[in-house]
Amino acid sequence: MQIRMMLRLLLCWAILGCFLVPTEVFAVRIKDIATFSGVRDNQLIGYGLVVGLPGTGDKKDSVFTLSSMKNMLDKMGIGVNSKALKIKNVASVMVTARMPVSSKPGTRLDVTVSSVGDATSLAGGVLLQTALKGVDGKIYGLAQGPLTVGGYTAQGNAAGASKNISTVGLIPGGAIIERGIPFQFNQQNTLTLNLRSADFSTAQQIAERLNQAIGGPFARAEDATSVRINVPPQYQNNLVPLMASVENLEVTPDTPAKVVVDEKTGTVVLGRDVRLSKAAVAHGNLQITVRESEQVSQPGPFSQGQTVVSPQTDLEVREEQRRLLMVEGTTLQELVDGLNAIGATPRDLISILRTLQAAGSLHAALEVI
User: Fold this and answer.
1) Of 264, 50, 243, whose CA–CA distance to 149 is shortest?
2) What burial class does residue 220 get, using C-beta atoms within 10 Å of its C-beta: 0-12 exposed, 13-18 middle, 19+ buried?
3) Distance from the Cα of residue 322 to its chain's centroid
4) What is the extent of the structural domain holding 50?
5) Among 50, 66, 93, 222, which residue has the fewest nearby CB atoms (within 10 Å)?
6) Entry pTM
7) Sign of the CA dihedral running 21, 23, 29, 32
8) What is the 3-state secondary structure (H, E, C) of 209-255?
9) What CA–CA distances, in Å, run from 103 to 38, 98, 143, 331?
10) Is 264 in a helix, a strand, or coil?
11) Is 53 found in the same domain as 170?
12) Does a structural domain hold residue 158?
C-alpha cells in the first residue's frame, strides 16, 4: 500500500511539473521588427569620372567616356580634340548613396562607385566631383575622393588572376550633403509603426504593449503591418524621447508556421511552429546510368576488309530499398529528428516536404525561393 501511495504521489508531481514548466519565450525590441514611417533613407545617384587609373580604364570604343572627358575639359577652358584624348586611365562610373531623412547640409555619406564601361579595375582611381541627384532631379550632394577597392585584377598575355570585384569601389564619407529634405519630424501628431513581417497577432500585441507603457489608449493596430500612435500631450513637439522609449519596448512576435526552401542551393529552413501529423514515409533514390562506347573491328593485314565501328550501350538501374518510417513532430526538435531518421539529403528533403504537404500532414506554408 505504501508503495502504491508513493507511486501515485510521484505521478501527481510529474503531471503537475508538466503544467508548471515555463514555455520558452523570445522577446525582441520593437526597433528590430518594425520601422517608423517617415524615418527612411532616400536614394541618390550621379554620373562621374574616375581618373588616375594605371591603364585599367575604359577602352577607345567607350564613346560616352570620350564625350564626358571633352565636355569637362571644355568647361575648364581647355579646348582639345576628342581624337587626341587617351582614356585608358579614365573610367565612367555611376555613383550611388543612401541619404537618411535627417541629413543636414554638411553631413557626410558613404558612396558606392561602379564602372559602367569596359574598365578592368578601379583600384588606385580618384572620383572627380560628381553631383548626386534624387528622384525629383534636384541635387542633394556632391561626391569626390579616392576609391577603396576590395579586389584586384592582374592580366597577362596568356593568363590572369583576380580576387573579388575590382570594378566597384567605396569612398567612406565621400559625399557632402548640400541640401536637406524638407521634413519636420517633431511637428507630427501621429506616428505609424510598420512591421517588417505582416501578422495580426504581433500588431495587436505591440499596440497593447504601447498603451501599457505610455499609460493610455494612444496606440491602435490599423492592420497586419501597421500600428498608429497618437502622440501624447507631454510629447507634442518633442518626439525623440517618445521614440527612444517606444523602440526599446520588448514584445514576442508571433509568426505563421512556414518552411522555406531554396532549390538552387538545397537549403531548407523550418520555422519554430512547424508541425507534422503522424505519417509513414519511405524515400528511396532511383539511379539510372547509361554508358556509351564504341567497339572497333579491324580487318586483317593485306585483306580486302573494312574497319567497322559498332556502338555499345551499357544500361544500369539501381533503386534503393527503404522501409516505411513513422514521422511525427509536435515540436521542432521532434520534427527534425524524424526527418533525419529517413536519412535523406537536403534535396531529397525538399521532395519529402512537398509530398507531406500534398498529403495534408505538413501543417505549414511551404515557400520555394
Assistant:
1) 50
2) middle
3) 38
4) 41-151+164-177
5) 222
6) 0.66
7) positive
8) HHHHHHCCCCEEECCCCEEEEECCHHHCCCCHHHHHHHHCCEECCCC
9) 13, 10, 15, 48
10) coil
11) yes
12) no
CA count, 13 A, side-chain hemisphere, 52 = 10
| 216 part of a folded domain | yes
Domain shared by 111 and 207, yes or no: no
Domain assignment present for 18: no
What type of residue sits at position 36? Answer: F
Report if residue 2 sits inside a domain: no
46, 172: one domain: yes
Give CA–CA dist 247/135, Å, rounded. Answer: 30
What angle is formed at CA 118 by the lines to CA 162 and CA 61, rounded to 5 degrees? Answer: 145
257 within 8 A of 269, measured Cβ to Cβ: no
* pLDDT tens, position by position, 309-340: 777 766 665 655 555 556 666 665 676 676 67
Cα distance between residue 215 and residue 229, in whole Å: 12
- Domain tally, the chain: 3
Question: In which element (H, E) is residue 119 found?
Answer: none
Query: What is the 3-state secondary structure of 301-314?
Result: CCCCCCCEEEEEEE
Indicate whether 225 and 173 sit together in one domain: no
Q: Is 147 in contact with 51 (CB distance < 8 Å)?
A: no
Q: Note whether 106 and 177 are within 8 A (CB).
A: yes
Give the pLDDT of residue 154: 65
Residue with cell string 548640400? 178
Residues 66 and 171 in one domain: yes
198 shares its domain with 263: no
Same domain, 69 and 98: yes
Please state which of the ranges 102-106, 166-170, 251-255 shows the lowest mean pLDDT: 251-255
Chain position carrying cell 520593437: 30
Grid cell digits, residue 31: 526597433
Q: Are residues 89 and 130 in the same domain?
A: yes
